[in-house]
Amino acid sequence: MSLSQTCETPVDGHAPADKQPLLRVDNLTRVYGKRIGCADVSFDLWPGEVLAIVGESGSGKTTLLNCISSRMTPTCGTVHYRMRDGASADIYKMAEAERRYLMRTDWGFVHQNPIDGLRMTVSAGANVGERLMAVGNRHYGNIRNTATEWLARVEIDEDRVDDQPRTFSGGMRQRLQIARNLVTEPRLVFMDEPTGGLDVSVQARLLDLLRGLVADLGLAVVVVTHDLAVARLLSDRMIVMKEGRVIEAGLTDRVLDDPRAPYTQLLVSSILQV
Amino acid sequence: MMNTLLVASEVQKSFIMHMRGGVELPVVANVSFSLKAGSCAVLGGPSGVGKSSILKMLYGNYGCDSGQILVSHHGHHIDIASADPRLVLEIRRDTIGYVSQFLRAVPRVSALDVAAEPLMIRGVAQEIAHQRARDLFDELNLPEKLWSLPPATFSGGEQQRVNIARGFITDHPILLLDEPTASLDAANREVVIDLIARKKADGAALLGIFHDHDVRSAVADDIIDVSGFAAGKSAA
To answer: What is the ipTM of this complex?
Structure first.
């Protein structure tokens, strides 16, 4: 087809209409007394899409993550999630039990500190198997096999399946937390500084693993990070936050390579070159 | 009449440097040209005139201040200058390929996976994608012992060949080339000239920056002089 021959109105700015967003966040605001946690945040997240929320400490990114993942009630605004049956549900209008079920099955949450996301005094295998039991699996052998498979996928040796995570290194704990979240094949995973407390070489391994899993499983991810390199490596789109508000949003490489807002330019220019 | 696959009209771009007191750096203005199937256009003009910036705007990596970049994508005409991020990613997956000047190496990812990735995100099976990458590495004389290693420690020329394989592995209708031969020896420049000729024969529209005269004269059907778009004269 030739552009010069057929001069129809260009289709611009419109996403393909074949699918609906998985998550729709509208005007989300959370205040702490007079202080703003986050204000007026809106975005859509699509199946298989990775969105990074970046900003410095205190920019409101963790508050935002907690509000969209139903871990903290927003002051105002709505979060809609498209359930597996295709219906869109307001997560703050769901019954508590329904929301909990959603969080245990279709969603995952990876904490910065694995201690917050793991049970440290039960075995690695049981940590992974727990969510399977939550969705109704009862057969011990099947649960153990699935758990072992998942440990292998996150590069934890099979002979560690009966060990407790308190005997694991930081990087292993984080990989275990990821396996625990992904075993129920969630469609949406929230991550709060997933590479936060790790050594650089351990970070690289984890990032590579995450990249592969996200691509293989077609996961939608909202990842909070202050590390722009992590955002570049993992995300399709990013949101830059400052003082609780969205300063700039767009395609990750465009925001990083052609930042418009003064604050984004400051962030990008503050990265040390190695 | 040949098919036009991309039309840029009156594209304008400047950088506003907020860290430097808001000074405006004009890059280009009134950029207008088109790319036709089966031909290779070359951006000409001295360094710093905005050639790479034009490629980056076409790829959606830089925003445009004004103007349109219409791309023929799955039978639709899309303005990449105003398309939303998801659509830009889809256009990159299926319509516009890009060989950047430098490889952005990802830790732990092998050269083979780097080159095969554009096929794999389009759903091609790993064995087929890897075989295609091996064929290209072989053609580009990349030593076989490097194929399974991450390219971070490769020489400039080796990294560039991984990048070229990654860019040429798909059958994108439009391919952007940012100095793909800058770090290559004469033999490998010949390979790239041949790869470009084959893309043209397959009906792709190419746009490149080539400082090497021999390469440029071997591949160029059309020279677009970017000095004519320089924004500095009028805007500064």
So the answer is: 0.93
User: B124: domain range?
Assistant: 102-171
Domain housing A263? 18-102+217-274
Q: Is residue A93 in a domain?
A: yes
Closest residue to B109, CB basis, from A15, A46, A208? A208
Closest CA to B180 of B39, B26, B40: B40
> Coil, helix or strand for B103?
coil
What digits encode the pLDDT tens for the residues A79-138? 999 999 999 999 999 999 999 999 989 999 999 999 999 999 999 999 999 999 988 888
**pLDDT confidence band for A197 (50 / 70 / 90):** confident
A162 falls within a domain: no
Rounded-to-integer distance, Cα A120 and Cα B105, Å: 36
Nearest CA in chain A to B60: A254
The CATH number linked to A51 is 3.40.50.300
CB spacing of A10 vs B79 below 8 angstroms? yes
CB contact under 8 A, A14 and B84: yes
CATH number of the domain residue B216 falls in: 3.40.50.300
Could B78 and A207 be called an inter-chain contact, meaning their C-beta atoms sit closer than 8 Å?
no
Which of B123, B149, B171 is the last residue before a domain boundary? B171
Tens-place pLDDT, residues B223-233: 999 998 876 55
Q: Does B83 touch chain A (CB under 8 A)?
A: yes
State the burial class of residue A33 (Cβ atoms within 10 Å of its Cβ: 0-12, 13-18, 19+): exposed
Q: Which of residues 97-126 of B touch A (CB under 8 A)?
A: 106-109, 121
Using the Cβ of A4 and the Cβ atoms of chain B, whether some distance falls under 8 Å is answered with yes
- A121: which residues sit within 8 A by CB, 6+ positions away? A164, A166
